[in-house]
Model the fold of this input.
Amino acid sequence: MDLLFFCIVPFLLYSFFTLSKLILHRRGQSCYMLAYECFKPPEDTKLDTNTCAKIVLRNRNLRLDEFRFLLKTIVSSGIGENTYCPKTVLEGKEMCPTLKDTFDEIDEIMFDTLDNLFERTGFSPSDIDILVVNVSLFSPAPSLTARIINRYKMREDIKAFNLTGMGCSASVVGIDMVQQLFKTYKNSLGIVVSTEDLGAHWYCGRDKKMMLSNCLFRSGGASMLFTNNPALKNRAILKLKHMQRTLFGADDEAYNCCIQVEDEQGFAGFRLTKSLVKSAAQALTVNLQAMAPKILPLWELARFFVVTVRSSMKKNELLPFLTSLVFGNGKIMKKITFSVLGGGLNFKSGIEHFCLHPGGRAVIDGVGMGLKLNEYDLEPARMALHRWGNTSAGGLWYVLGYMEAKKRLKKGDRILMISLGAGFKCNNCVWEVMRDDMCDANVWKDCIDSYPPETLNNPFKEKYDWIHEDYLSFARLDFDRMVI
Done:
């Protein structure tokens, strides 16, 4: 018995230390968000109805048909009177922006949010171990990360990454990069800066598929601070629970549905095609199918399985269904995959809040319908779109800011962030709220009491509806005599 005891003890001790080491290792891989700061542009860059009309009407390449298209798009976009536009465009320099104009636009967003982030958290720029910057349409040399490092005199050993061309879902890509680096670098601090350059990429042609970007995109951005240091856990506001990235770049239709090109006249811009909705639905469905087992309760997955089996039996597809489960392919499995967004799975059983990318009213409506979300769930995204417009990769944080300003977030709540972007990509993640006192009004503090407004109707419809009159089809508009 003694011999057996002495043989078992070393094994038990080894198992205990191995398990302890594994637990400590996994704790070190956690990703906590300490704070985030959204950018609020200067009031003199606000893009109200009159200012927007002046910008549209000074484009002499447009014809009456394009003006009507723009009016219809602006009215139905879900964007309000208080969004912001780059100074380059407001000053009429969109046809010939300089490199200095672009740097001024980006610098204002990056440095303002970073200044506020350092002041708010009390950390010094020299404390930062990892820096990730994503601006899709502007990639200078030296990089934007080097520009930040130079401005704040950061350490020589900082791990810096500059992401370009990742589209509106780049923010989640940046967070994933920080999370992966946290697995190697212990007790670290990481910053992600997410924004976009609009002024130098304003479309000046008349291709309707490329004019959409001018109607939707507005100035904005955000900076976020993360850590994997367990000692800072008590200061965290959110904890990253799950991350799922999906890229449909191998599909030609998905790849070309949202792409930067030149039109027939040589004007560069961003082309959005009708297949964007289809590509977004496919990418989102595949992404959520992979994420569902990680975030939904077992009883919901079991319910979905039973419903799927019953449906297969009614259609005499039970045998193919069981076969597809074993071999992992087949047409039946494909049908099941796309039933995820058809109301089959109830994601509200595992998620309390939905932070949708405010890319446009159609995007919000489509995701809401697919996931069977109510107006309460969609309100943060709708209000962020109305107040700030589509701020590209920074848009998610204006939505989160609305939730916080409205005091919706409670400790233990889970937030599903859904981002869609060119590629075509769908990058989603789930956060757990770490505190009960998340009630900072942030960039919403001057207007949160007025949201949601009684109506989201755009003043363009009432003021410029005359452009739809039939008699104008035979007239030539005189821009110089138009009164705005």
